Amino acid sequence: MCANIKFHIISPTDKDPEEIQIYYDLIETEFGYSLFGIQDNKLCHISFQDDDVPNLEKLKVSWPNANLIHDPRGMKEIAKKVFDGADGKVDVLLKGTDLQVSVWKALTKIKSGTTVSYEKMAELVGKPRAIRPVARAVATNKIAYLIPCHRVIKKNGDIHKYGSGPERKKKMLSYEGAI
């Protein structure tokens, strides 16, 4: 997986520009179809789905004022960086609270082929008592796989709950050699 990520942060209290353009495309990946969203040359969305018809609802919720435009140009190259580990930097646009952003950045430090518990994630971000808020931040990750929320599992080792289904999470972890 691409490790060269440059983060650009927007606070949720900042007002979204009224006329932002998000270009999207659906890419077939090892883990099913993946919807990519790019805003101003920054990756702002990756989600998985089971069919080849773009489901834009999650993208619309994250960016309610955006004008969504289907445009596949350049998406396959970004997908190669994300899923195949192709060389190059990926600019990522995150919109979240300080805690969410700290959790998302910490997720990128979990090595492929390993997992951590929600409790360990809370410790990693310096909030050992904030397990539930940290778990919510993990669950609200809008850039699946590149920000590897799938590497967080229950303390007892159970693989449960994943925005794109626990079976997809198991497939990702198996692919990375974690299970």
UniProtKB/TrEMBL annotation:
Q: Matching Pfam families, A to Z?
A: DNA_binding_1 (PF01035)
Q: What's in the keyword line of the UniProt record?
A: DNA damage, DNA repair, Methyltransferase, Transferase
GO BP annotations of the record are: DNA repair; methylation
SUPFAM superfamilies, per this entry? Methylated DNA-protein cysteine methyltransferase domain (SSF53155), Methylated DNA-protein cysteine methyltransferase, C-terminal domain (SSF46767)
PROSITE patterns, alphabetically? MGMT
Q: Which domain of life is it from?
A: Eukaryota
Q: Name one GO molecular function term.
A: methylated-DNA-[protein]-cysteine S-methyltransferase activity
Catalytic activity reads:
a 6-O-methyl-2'-deoxyguanosine in DNA + L-cysteinyl-[protein] = S-methyl-L-cysteinyl-[protein] + a 2'-deoxyguanosine in DNA; a 4-O-methyl-thymidine in DNA + L-cysteinyl-[protein] = a thymidine in DNA + S-methyl-L-cysteinyl-[protein]
**Which top EC class is named for this enzyme in its record?**
transferase
The Methylated-DNA-[protein]-cysteine S-methyltransferase DNA binding domain covers 99-177
Question: InterPro entries, alphabetically?
Answer: MethylDNA_cys_MeTrfase_AS (IPR001497), MethylDNA_cys_MeTrfase_DNA-bd (IPR014048), MethylDNA_cys_MeTrfase_DNAb (IPR036217), MGMT_N_sf (IPR036631), WH-like_DNA-bd_sf (IPR036388)
The catalytic activity of this protein is classed by the Enzyme Commission as 2.1.1.63
Q: Which CDD domains match?
A: ATase (cd06445)
* Similarity-based family: Belongs to the MGMT family.
Please report the name of this protein according to its UniProt entry: Methylated-DNA--protein-cysteine methyltransferase
Which organism does this sequence originate in?
A: Popillia japonica
User: What lineage, starting at the top, does this entry show?
Assistant: Eukaryota, Metazoa, Ecdysozoa, Arthropoda, Hexapoda
